[in-house]
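Before the break, one more example. Copy the sequence into your notebook; we will annotate it together after we see the structure.
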Amino acid sequence: MTLTIIIILGVIMIAAAFGAIYFNKLLAAIVSAGVISLLASVIYLVLGSPDVAMTEATIGSGLTTIIFLFALNKVRKENKK
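Here is what the structure looks like once it is written out:
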């Protein structure tokens, strides 16, 4: 059962990775990269490592995505000037 969940999440992660590469919109690519990290944290949790899962979810998925979104917003504001 655990192996099935890991395989399904891995396939979704690969699809999200291809999405992050091929999306034309930067916002969609940033969200897709955040989804990859969030799914990685779920895999860590399934494998029995909740401390690594919390760290990945907090820093990898949360903080990194927020920093990328902040940078994208700042660049868009600078380009409007």
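The chain has one domain: 2-80. The two ends are 54 Å apart (CA to CA). Try to locate both features in your own notes.
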